Input
Amino acid sequence: MTIGTHDTGTGYEMKPPSYKADLTEVGRGKPMGELLRRYWHPVGLSRDAGDVPVRVQALGEDLVLFRDRQGRPGLLHARCCHRGTTLYYGKVEDSGIRCCYHGWLFDTQGHCLEQPCEPEGGSFKDKVRQPWYPVEERYGLIFAYMGPPDKKPVLPRYDCLETMDGGEFVEADDSSIGGGGPAIIPCNWLQHFENVADPYHVPVLHGSFSGPQFTNMMASMPEVRFETTDRGVAIRSVRPQDGGKVFYRVTEAIFPTLRVVPNPRVAQFARVESIGWMLPLHDTAFRIYVAGRVKTSGDIGRMRSKFNGKFWWDMTEREHQQFPGDYEAQVGQGPITLHSEEHFGQSDRGVLMVRRTIRNQLDAMAAGRDPAGVSFDPDAPPIVFEAGNYIRDV
Ligand code: FES
Ligand SMILES: [Fe+2]
Output
């Protein structure tokens, strides 16, 4: 108790907290939702698209993914345009998916081909269209474009997934490797994207706090340079090594949701071997798709962190407290972190840079320009990343 003075800084004095909706909310018509809709996003593994419809959530929309019997993948709104049941219970046929309720048949572009309860098999089938999105397959993933049709860019190629070293091939993974927890991570996608530009958390969260979760080389405090590039933010961390050498590690946060992070666990000094795409499912959940060069099938899955020798889902609640990782730290920020309550320091420069560069893209779009990194050139060369782990002379 204080006598004669007032206590300060108590919770009671807080102003109502808030978050930056323009940077976080992913729905159609929201600033970030529209920015995200100007890019292709992975929505499933190629092998998910088959004759059993799969539920997909993306950018706040409920969808179904399937592949007709002619081999064409399709991504349709789940809610049938007749009377609204879900196509998740539909049946995949030669030329599309048939709704379970009254049998309307839709092709992969939402054209209604049959209305079996209507006279003559459907007199107005040409007048209805099941909402659909264009999809393309690459790197073992199904990518969807959910934005304005006249702004559809080409699906980018990436050199690190095009140029193989001996014996390598590309494999994809949908288990949110790098998210530190289960496949679906219940918080806003930006909390994870900002984490890519936050190398200072590595020696704390993944080093001293829970014991080294990565290689010992990653456990020392780096000297970091951040730079805004024409495609996102580059983070260059330098850690001195014996013999006058330095461990030089570059990670990149690429628009709109790519984490280009070299493996922090394997002491391998080379260009980045995998890319992670965050897919915002809705405002308060995301998942991560990864595609990478591997020598043995399943290598990406083997990159998954263990904590105290256990996988995340095998840990007790007490172990989650004792050995927290990215999942605990980011979900711990809340469903959408309260930006009004933050206090930034020098070490948060990268996070601020990410927010500023996103805001620049929102401004560019508001001014009628295309956001960074979209290309309409089908012959554009594959994008080469700087990211990697390297040993260099000082
Ligand atoms: S609700 Fe789909 S066909 Fe009637
Ligand atoms: Fe981390």
